[in-house]
């Protein structure tokens, strides 16, 4: 049986927009509530060699984070990270992770100037996009909705690489297949064929930082002040995830309450493409609800 077609353009209910101003603008896919203003804006940050369609259920619509979150009253912005997509021409080498975060922060501020954001922003970061999201969460945030960061949900983004990932295999050339996917049974049929349309070249500036992440993680985590949740699939291959490692990882978040660390059963590294995606997305959105509960009622 041939694979279902997968488009690199947004699906029903999702539109392509441009974030920011000036020469380094970013592309994004947006899904908004059908009626009324959003309760919050969820910013989804894709991983290494990926694109926003990762969050849109490219094979099985019920696995779409954009569809689920917008149905619950949130706007979702699945952004193209600097050096990917629209910004590739102006940033052919990409940007280091900290600079990616600064550009995303400015783009989010510009979005808030022009659109309602409900109670504020909530970040979901996958894999290397989780690294950018972690830097972004450590930026200066305020108390008004346009400046408020409600929380951060990282998935597939840890501290120390596993021995199998220590040589940083190339995603684009297929060397990271087992690390990225895990057992084939974890994904809807035709996922591997269809997901090729989602792949993008990794910008050189991002690639150069990969080996330095373990040394930088503690200081980056220590700057985060919002609530944090860390999620990994049961079959995660990129990261060390023994009990001591996960406890040490959580302890790096010294300016916020200890983060929840969760393993999703029957899931691999690419959580949002797997059969476990609805379970993961529902738990991430439940965490958003917990974060919203701390916001004054007049704002929600």
Helix and strand topology:
Layout: E1 15-19, E2 26-31, E3 41-45, H1 65-71, E4 75-79, H2 97-114, E5 121-126, H3 128-137, E6 149-155, H4 177-181, H5 191-194, H6 204-207, H7 213-222, E7 228-233, H8 243-251, E8 260-264, H9 277-292
Could you walk me through the main structural features you see in this protein, from its secondary elements to its overall organization?
With 300 residues, the protein is an alpha/beta fold. The protein has a single domain (15-292), classed as Rossmann fold, CATH 3.40.50.1820. Helices cover 28% and strands 15% of the residues. Strands 1-2-4-3-5-6-7-8 form an 8-stranded mixed sheet, sandwiched between helices. Helix 2 packs across helix 3 (128-137). The chain starts with 14 loop residues before the first strand and ends in an 8-residue tail after the last helix.
Q: How many structural domains does the protein architecture include? A: 1
- Share of residues in strands: 15-25%
Cα-to-Cα separation, first versus last residue: 47 Å
What's the SSE pattern? EEEHEHEHEHHHHEHEH
Find the count of extended strands (DSSP E, 2+ residues). Answer: 8
CATH topology: Rossmann fold
CATH architecture: 3-Layer(aba) Sandwich
The CATH fourth-level homologous superfamily: Alpha/Beta hydrolase fold, catalytic domain
* Poorly predicted runs: 1-9
CATH class: Alpha Beta
Main β-sheet: number of strands, strand sense, barrel status? 8 strands, mixed
Number of helices: 9
Helical residues, percent: 25-40%
Structural class of the helix and strand makeup?
alpha/beta
Instruction: Report strand order across the widest sheet.
Output: 1-2-4-3-5-6-7-8
